[in-house]
Write a structure and sequence with these properties.
21 strands, 209 residues, mainly beta, five-stranded antiparallel β-sheet, single chain
Length: 209
Amino acid sequence: TFETDNGMDVVAVTTTGKAVGLIAAGPETAVLAVDSPASLVAFSQVSGLAEQTFALAAGAIPGGMELAPDGLSLWIADLGNPLVYRLTTAGPVATWILASFPMPMAMRDVAVTGDGQRLFTLAADADDVFVHALPDVRPVDLLGATPEVEGLALRSAVRAIAGGRRAHVMRGSGVPDYPVLLTTHAGNVFFLNGSTGCADYSDLRGPRL
């Protein structure tokens, strides 16, 4: 740990593998995703010391991570297994619990809507988005076209997704809802309606994230 000339502290964290993801889980604790062995390391943002390590499933490749709006859970995608993980982040780190939930396929990113009611997941090898009701991670079929629950097939090469934290009146709906932001490899940005899954490829100014 060392201090810079602008008053900011820089913290070094020792890991056993390559760091592939990093996210703050609170004012004092952050979580580092490590590739080998695949795990999550909760560490102090003050000292850099690891406080707890959580092993992921065999063959896991940690993907995108997002903290729920209430700050009580962290969601993690897995590019190597058809799973997503929820790490409870309430209370002392020693009491945090890691749980896994089955997915229709491996996922590369996750997003939680601003009301904390839905989890969106982005397929690892496709541009399909799946929707799940929280807290039980129950699949939500927004299409209803077949007996199976299908993902939302998007017409752009999606790079990442993130949940908006403020409700927004989506174009054509007249009803406030929580958007999900999608960025593309071409550098474009568009939004999904968190309730209907409808994509708005042109309304890029309204949602305040």
